[in-house]
Predict the structure.
Amino acid sequence: MAQLEEIEIQIRQLCESRRVRVENFFMDFDKLRSGFVTCNQFLRTLWMNLGVKLSEEQESALLQKYRAPDGRFNYRRFCDSIDAGRAFRPDDLSVHPSAQIPAASELLGTRRSVRPLSPDSENKVLSLLEHLARHYRLGGYSLRAAFKEFDRHNVGCVTESQFYRALPVPKEFGEAEVALLSRRYADPERAGLVSYLNLQSDLDAVLGFSAQQDQQVATKSAPAPPSAFSNGKTEAVTDPSIEMILQRLRVAVHKHGIRLLDFLRDHDKLRHDLVTENQFVKSLMLAIGKQAQLNLPECHALAHYFAAKDGSNRVRYRDFALAMDSPFNVPHLEKKPLATVEVPAQGSLARTQPRLTAAEEADLADTMEDIRRQVLERRLMVYQYFKDYDRSTAYTRVMTPQQFARSLHFLTLDVSPEKLKLLARKFADPATGDVNYPAFAEAVDADFCQQRVSRQADLETRAAQAETRDWQAIVERPVVTVGDNVTFDELMVRIRSLVLSTRARVKDFFVDYDTLRSGLMTRSQFQRCLSQLGLSKLGWHDLSSRQLDLLCNQYADARDGEKVRWMDFVADVDSVFTRTGLEKDPFAAVPAQELFVAPKPGTINWEASASPEHRSCYDQALERLALKVAQRRMLVRPTFRDFDKHRRGTMSRTQFRQAMTMLGLHCEPEELEAIEARFAVDEGFNYAAFLEDLEPEKPVEFMYGKRLQELRLVQSRGRLPDLRPATDADQVLYRIRTKAVRERIRVQEFLRDFDKLRSGRISKVTFRRALSGSGLQLGESEFSHLEDLYQSRKDPDSVEWMRFVDDVEAAFTQKHLDKTPLANPEQFVPEPESCINYLPAEAEQSVNKLLLLIAQQVRERRTQMLPFFESYDKVHHGTISQNQFRRVLTDLGIVSSFSEEEWALLYRKFKQTVGTREDVNYFFFVDVVYSMAGFDTRKP
């Protein structure tokens, strides 16, 4: 039985160390969940999943205990005995759930040392553990992290040498203390190993016990800590000393813009909102200790006040940071608009002053009183003299003690060196150590008030004045514009004219604001849509506030005066394009759009209001300016447009005169006044209308009728005669094959798209249209020969295009090669065009005599003719003109006395058509001459 219990203990510790439930491994073999498996399956599971290899005696002992009468193994009863005292059993209602999971005594299956120690050694180990726990808590050490590098497999043990090297101990620990700990936590089964996890477990127990004692002491001596934030509120602080410290911290946080949370959460890697007391004190002193003049007792008092409720020696830093990060404000104010925010009194956020002793204050009182008396008698304004020394990169409101002494000497406020040091200490800035001169000026000058805390009565008086003040009259000032007296009809005429000129779709600017298509929107939305339409200062026309109110009032809804009927406005404006309901009244007359064109606002009726003298002066000035612009060919419009960035067609009168001066168009004062009066508008000067009179643009001529007559004339002339009529269909087919091989043209791609049913026939007209896009460049006679050759037998007006394609494709390959594998197809090699220039017999003999004469001279002189011909062929296409060909042979001295008839024979022999021009193929000519001279091809 002892052996069986030892096996179960071993398996139980192994499952605890690996954090596994052994029952899950057996369920894979028990599909019906009967609770039984075979003995072989049980042993295989222990070996494959847990790595437990049992001996024959151990196997027989386990099988004898858990074997069923039918020979199977009862794994469920085995798992219950393994999980007994460790797993939570929901079916056991006799025991409270919290009592079903006792804490494990050891970790990862480690063992306690059974070697006894003396009572003195045990007491010393206990004191060492308390010392180590305190050292780890204050220093923030982690024992597991220290041994993690040596314990790669997480067995919980390290060697003695590794334990000596990695154990973090304080300076007062010697070798004897470390050796005592090594003996206390030595592994009983494996010699030379030390269980550091057991040491960690004991340290955690010591820390828990000390934290519980500290909590009991803090509960008796200090009030209960505040709870965490709930809806932006905290429990009221009952300790006056803590409230004073927190108030001082709030002022420092507000003045210096410090976020305490950024300093504290660096110590909380897992974001548990808890840090140790030492980390809290260090972070607080680093963040705001100097600005708020904190000391260590105050920091520890704050740490105890915000201590965690679980009894551990940790601090709820997030509750503290939330209370400090929003000083003089209410958190989540956007959700509580009616909340009253605390307004600090004037001067409450000023720099705090150091505290002097009672003796130093009494010693300094006479000096301060003497300085006050002199300032009052001499009516000195000391603040301005001190401020002259504050010339740094920012307004710091401090000065050095040397500058402070120099300023007092300049004001003849002589103070002894000892009293001067006391003054510098009394008004010293806590952050920099310099002198806070506004505080000193406020202490000695009764009329100067900048940092003094305001009284409550002053605050109430200012609040009452703010309530009775007419803010609406201050913010909204009446603005008077030129177009305020415009009627509604005149305003609509302007808007219709603007929409007609810009061709704007008015409905598109309004419809997005009315998602329910109710036809209504608010006044602010209506004005915003008008601004997007172009009725703004940056648009085509500006509407004043009174004009906007006029439109809103005209289209206001009868049921809700704050809503505007925008659909009615859109219908009235769109009437410039068409009328609504035309489908019901097709004979209704639609007014011409020219009737809705209106001049710019402020334009006068020149013909009716201008006197004859003004009109005569304007006509003479405009005629003279137009003649000058036409003679000099001046570009007037760019100069005027430079002053009109938004292209609104207007400019100021000053800008108009400036533009005229820049262009050199000088006028008399009377002429300028007449021109300005003619084109004056509300926005200034309408230079667009002025330029239309100065440089009238020619109307665009209607060219449709003329172009139509030209097209009819061209079509009536018929087709042009063929320049190179073909005489034989075989010659045409040879030319098509040659061009297809050279330019890699697939004729089938251009023809099959016109035969959707793949009948093999297309009309003659379609045949011509298809080949015209292929690039073969066939003439009328060539088309006629092809149509006669491939005319369909069934339809005389059709062409058998597949037969034509087969004949052309024969230049590339032979058809039906899959049926004749032994056939030897011949590749079609096109000859140069000059090779097919056939001459009569007599002409051929004359050309051969000329070529023999040229070849004889070339052989005698060893002349290279090809480079001379290539110098005229820049694009290297192998041809040159007839004049160039004649010039090369003449310059080489090969031809001395050829007649014109002989030159013509040479041209006819080696001619090659390039477009519409007949050139000479000098490549073929050189090859023929070299072959007659006995040279290699193109080599002398």
About this structure: The chain is about 50% helix and 5% strand.
